[in-house]
Specification:
This protein has 116 residues and is an alpha+beta fold. The chain has one domain: Sufe protein. Chain: A, CATH 3.90.1010. The chain contains five helices and three strands; from the N terminus they run H-E-E-E-H-H-H-H. It has a three-stranded antiparallel sheet with strand order 1-2-3. The radius of gyration is 13 Å and the shape is globular.
Length: 116
Amino acid sequence: MYSARLLQYFNEPKCVGLLPAPALRIEAMNPICGDIVQLSALFQDGIVERAGFLAKGCTASMAAGAALAEWAVGKSRAQLTALTAADVEALLDGLPNESKHAAQLAADAARLLARA
């Protein structure tokens, strides 16, 4: 059902926890299923220097939050804005149809952080 990569992000997440101020923090929520991803990032010269996340919801949403936080380090606001659900799905080596909402949630969180 889930890829080995997705399960690795779920079972062994990096970047867990939100960063303290002056890091920026956002929260994205899927209003249909209630899954939530909180993302924080410390920017240095417009680039994410450190990132952290918390997620509540299904396995896929939690893994997508972990993948997003890890991916975001070293990225610019423009790269965060450009991240798509398909990109997130690729980070997880695919998602079953019933879990594709997790990739969209992570992409939405990236865009919110870019605008924060």
